[in-house]
Amino acid sequence: MREKETNNNAGAISSPTPMLQVHDRDQAAGDTNNGGMRTTETLLRLIPIAPCIAALVVMLHNSQTNDFGSVSYSHLGAFRYLVHVNGICAGYSLLSAVIAAMPRPPKMSQAWTFFFLDQVMTYLVLAAGAASTEVLYLAFKGNPAITWSSACSSFPTFCHKATASVAVTFVVVASYALLSLISSYKLFTNYQPPTLNPAISKPSIQVATFHA
Amino acid sequence: MREKETNNNAGAISSPTPMLQVHDRDQAAGDTNNGGMRTTETLLRLIPIAPCIAALVVMLHNSQTNDFGSVSYSHLGAFRYLVHVNGICAGYSLLSAVIAAMPRPPKMSQAWTFFFLDQVMTYLVLAAGAASTEVLYLAFKGNPAITWSSACSSFPTFCHKATASVAVTFVVVASYALLSLISSYKLFTNYQPPTLNPAISKPSIQVATFHA
What we know:
- The structure is a homodimer.
- Chain A has about 210 residues and is mainly alpha-helical.
- In chain A, about 65% of the residues lie in helices and about 5% in strands.
- Chain A has one domain.
- Chain A is built from seven helices and two strands, in the order ααββααααα.
- In chain A, strands 1-2 form a two-stranded antiparallel sheet.
- In chain A, a hairpin with a 2-residue loop joins strand 1 and strand 2 (about 70).
- In chain A, helix 1 (about 15-45) runs antiparallel to helix 3 (about 75-100) and helix 2 packs antiparallel against helix 5 (about 155-190).
- Chain A is elongated, with a radius of gyration of 26 Å.
- Chains A and B meet through helix 1, strand 2, helix 4, helix 5 and helix 6 of A and helix 1, strand 2, helix 4, helix 5 and helix 6 of B.
């Protein structure tokens, strides 16, 4: 992949002074534009924090004791994983929002890090949601073939709280799918399209040297 | 998001004839480049077909009958979902490889469709893998708190075949994570970076009109 060249030397031969003025005005407009983009990204990165913490807290306090016995989220691997992933997600969302809010020129290393971590976070949260959904499905329905009883008939409150937590986790999945899209966009727009001809995409000032 | 302008009118004022020759030569190079890119993408899209079919076939023939009873993949929702998703995955991989192989100019609608469907496919296969892993975990370990017995002690062959199918499904997940990255790259390189100044990025021939 080839990084793009910024052809801000455009028109430098014919009229240096007017071009400089244009550049200055555009620079100011670009800064405002960058500020708006930064604020939007920071807000989008803050959005998943609330559902992450909500899903985490609901699951963390999910336990039920009755005549059938006692059950807690910690008895089920998928629910423990869901709690951990939501904790990591809340921390990462806050950290990435702080980094995205910093007023500094965009760096390729940061774009790659955000792209990679957003993808990983999406996959982790989705896996937690899918595994927990499967446990809930088995807990509600049971499985006669392998003699697993329907646990939710014995522990209805536990199952309802777990369902709420899993549903909120899927809100986090949706938020992260969107954030992954945005970080892909921010990363790959810095590269040349694979089908674009490198010689054609060079600024005209360099191509003009061909004519002698 | 702004689509990029191809500044292939570069140098048109100073020397039209040499530029045309350069353009022709570059066009041929570009076509070869596009052909190579197309072949690579087609091959990458063909790769997941084998693991999809392998995971599907292994799971589809997974059943065991012994003194404890009879168990089949169809008794478990997660395994049925895994079979369906692997079938869809194999079909989509083949179809997308055929479309990617067609020698025609790249279209934005196709780039958006591939991007969207690759993401959806990754999420579907990952969810199937995660849910099935959770079932296997429960089947191997059991869960005393909710009185679920370890089914794998009664049906070891069933569990081993299911484990093999799930492991192969994660190969499909990895392939699709890579394909998602490639389709993101192919789509978003056609857009301007969010921080790039629109006036600066215009070809010099247009900026030159500013000077009068």
